Each structure stands twice: as structure tokens, then as C-alpha cells.
Amino acid sequence: MKTEKLPLTGHLEELRRCLVISFMTIGIGFLFSYAFSQEIFDLLARPLYKLLPPGDALIFTGYPEAFFLYLKLAFFAGVVEASPVILYQVWTFIEPGLYEHEKKMAVPFVLATTFFFVCGLLFAYFVVFPVAFKFFLGYNSEYLSAVPAIGEYFSFATRLLLAFGLVFEFPVVMCFLARMHVVTVSFLRRNRKYAILGIFILAALITPTPDVVNQLLMAGPLLVLYELSIFLIWLMERRAGSAKE
Fold first, then answer.
1. Could you tell me which of 185, 225, 222, 228 has the C-alpha nearest to residue 201?
2. Neighbours of 203 (CB within 10 A)
3. Beta pairing partners, 224
């Protein structure tokens, strides 16, 4: 059974508590990350460094640009580091509206969302970055030479990381919809062809650049994640069927 409903003031107080904890955690992550901002930037830029001609490097055109870039990078890293706490706070905020058996899903929810988000970041870094940068730098010629700026690179890299991190949450979202009885295995299998079309449209919309390479690199994992979602929901339905017997 569900717990007793909170008044509006109670919801606002709970929201304030969740926001305060989340921002405090991000602040701690920001301070920790800023102490290692140079190392984090070197790690982020390494896939590009490997493809640049010897002696080339990222540039900045304004005196404070590198300083503000390190602040943005530390904040981005702080958000990533704080993501498990943020996700848990999201769960605690919606928990009063859940049934008792659903409240037990807090730890699996946080672990699953964190796991798939990190998988998305790793896939972007180790698979997408090398392919995408090699493709773009392939336009270098006798008359054209890439001189990447740190601000432009940071913006492009972080958008790719976030895009793939969020896209990899697809199985978690689908399992949640299955728990809400919105989708089933048979529904997903029956509409697979429409899902494939939708995946390629989504990949075209959310990739930072409109090139075919990045869109294919986005659509490929989504297709795999769609099939993984079907398998996970099938396991959930089978487990629920066994529990009723």
C-alpha cells in the first residue's frame, strides 16, 4: 500500500532538502575535481592529441579562457561524480507516492542508472571520440589545417559524453515503463520496425553535429539497447509470473 499523502508544503520541503543535498554533493565534487583539473583535461583531450600532427596542440585565444574552461570542466566532473547521490535524491522525492514493494527498488535503480550512464561515457570516450575526431581531422590538407580551440573542443566533447550517457539510460527507462504496465515484451517486438525508424531519427536529433558518422555511432548502441530492454523486460515478466505461482 502507498504511504499517506504529504501536503503541498511537505512536498516543497522535501524538494528543498533533495536540492540542497544534491547541490552540496556537486560542490564537493567540483572542489575535488578542480584540484585535478589539469589531469582531467589531459584525459579528456587525449583522444584528440593522439590524432593531431606532432607539435600541434589545442589553443585558447583569450587570456581567461583556459581558467574558465577549467572551472566548467570541474563542474562537469563534479556533476558526474555526484550523479549517484542526485539519482538517489530523485528517488527519495518520488518515494512517498510508491507502493511498499516499489520502494525496495531504490538501490537497484541508483545502481542501474549509474552503471548505464558510466557505460555511455566510456563508449563515447573509447569508441566515438577516436572515430569522430579521425573523421573530422581527415579534412586536413596542404591548404587546410585544423587548429582546435579548447573551448570548442570542451563543448563538443562534453555534449557527446552527455548525449551517450543519457542515451544509455534507455534500458532503465523501458524497464520503468514496463513496471508501470505501459510497455510489454510483445509490444516492443511487434513495433520493432517503428522503433528502428525512431532510433535513427532520434540519433539525428541529439548528436552534436549533423554528420552521418556520429549519427550511426549513436544509432548502433540504441539498437543494441532496445534489444537489451526487451530481454530485461522478459526477465521481469518471467519473474513476476513465477512469483504468482
1. 222
2. 21
3. none
pTM: 0.82
Q: How far is CA 215 from the centre of its chain?
A: 16
Residue 200 neighbours by CB under 8 Å, 6+ apart: 215, 219
What are residue 149's DSSP bridge partners?
59
Nearest to 236 by CA among 182, 187, 179, 189: 179
Cell match 600541434: residue? 56
Nearest residue to 50 via CA among 119, 116, 134: 134
55: left (phi over 0), alpha (psi -120 to 50) or beta: left
DSSP state of 98: S
Q: How far apart are CA 168 and CA 98, in angstroms?
A: 25
- Looking at residue 160, what DSSP letter applies? H
Cα(193)–Cα(176) distance, integer angstroms: 22
CA distances from 229 to 170, 198, 232 (A): 8, 16, 5
**Backbone torsion region of residue 181, taken as left when φ is above 0, otherwise alpha when ψ lies between -120 and 50, otherwise beta:** left
User: Number of H helices and number of E strands within the chain?
Assistant: 11, 0
Cell matching residue 199: 532510433
The type of residue at 59 is I
**CA distance linking residue 132 with residue 223, whole number of Å:** 20
From residue 215, alpha-carbon distances to 27, 63, 202, 208 in Å are 34, 35, 9, 9
Give tens-digit pLDDT for 27-70. 999 999 999 999 998 999 888 888 877 777 788 887 888 889 89
